[in-house]
Amino acid sequence: ALGRIRGAPVVIHDETSPFRRRSSRIARALVTVLSAASTVVAADRVVAVADVHGTIDGLTGILRAAELIDDSNAWIGGEATLVQTGDLLDRGVHLQEIMDLLMRLQAEAPESGGKVIALLGNHEAMNLLGIRRDVNRDAYTAFVDERTETRRTEAFEAFKRYWRRRGREIGHDVAVTGEAREQWFAMHPPGYFEYVEAFSPKGKYGAWLRGLPVAAVVDGTLFVHGGFGPMLEGLTVEEVNGRAAAELRTFDDYHDYMVDSGLALPWFSAPEMAAAVAKEIEALQSATGRYGAFDDRRLARLERARGFLHWSKWFITNPEGPLWFRGAAKWDESERGDEMAALLDDLGVDRMVVGHTVRSSSRIGSRFGGRVYLIDTGMLESVYGGTASALEISDGTVTAIYPDERQILVDGPGLRSTQERDEAAQIPVGTQ
Predict the structure, then answer these.
(1) What are the helix (H) ranges across 211-269?
(2) What is the pTM of this model?
(3) Which of 160, 168, 202, 218 is deepest in the core (most CB within 10 A)?
(4) What are the residue ranges of helices labelled H in 287-332?
(5) From CA 35, how far away is CA 33, in angstroms rounded?
(6) How would DSSP label each residue in 328-349?
(7) Do 364 and 373 contact (CB within 8 A), yes or no?
(8) Average per-residue pLDDT in the chain?
């Protein structure tokens, strides 16, 4: 059955769905439902950390500064809640260590009454959709094993068979030259196919990431990677999480169907899959009047695959969706402050905390009268030149935590910033 998300079709699974059922998919759907239901929680102390981008030292350093882990990276945060707002992946190299750490802390924290909530960022979504353009080539090395070269050779042979067959189907004479072979191997370095498998629905990291929400409300604060903008108006956090999860399941089903039917190869990205469908449509149009060249099997294959052309309009890919929205950082406060306030009021939250947009100052900042906090301070120093940071919310006090200092941003439960307090006391700002 087809549901609609702001005009974009998304496959919502029911008994009449044309896609094949898998028990693992059903289990994953149940995990997603349970995860979404648990993303509105209460906590006395909340610590949020934004974009990690593959720097394990940055992440562990700031978690120690926030007194959530010890020197052996074990949980010591007691009943605190840690929220990681997405973008663990890409650009840096220590991806496995980061995900392994968070997965372990998710299991450890509840033993002392704590909780670890990891959210999807746009870079997690990209990787789950096979978009690996920002993966650091050195990150693939960690996935190499004894069968790596065999897999690469097998994959290249599969690529040649696919390319030649597709050439015949579309009506082009395709040759795979020696130069093309070199380019292909350069584009698929050692560890590439193991990485693809690890992020697949059955892979260790792919299964974990597919169970994560895109947003969570903790003690009156909304945490999300990009932000809630007009596109999400009128939707609850649970609805947004549910629809994002449905989109990932839809992608997996399209992917499996297109691979099984010969339209795609297992490592194809969403753009490559859409291009394959577009080429099939073009071939059909060129065959008008001579349908013998486009047999019933190909017509049926195309009919079932063409819905994937809408993938770029989904919540998890749309520039105005929760993983990509930059209005929290870019909107003019004087012109759109009331609009932002209305969005947050409709959700029933006091404030929103987002990452995604790197702060040029490398410091946590607030906007819209203290109702929006921007916490991406460019933790991956080699790329962004920033520093690690965390935002702590405890008993109404909001504190920015850095590796070597703490800065109180809001002092007390009245949501009154330290700047407003100093102005009221006629103390020059910055003299503390």
Answers:
(1) 237-260
(2) 0.86
(3) 218
(4) 296-305, 327-330
(5) 5
(6) HHHS-HHHHHHHHHHHHHHHT-
(7) yes
(8) 87
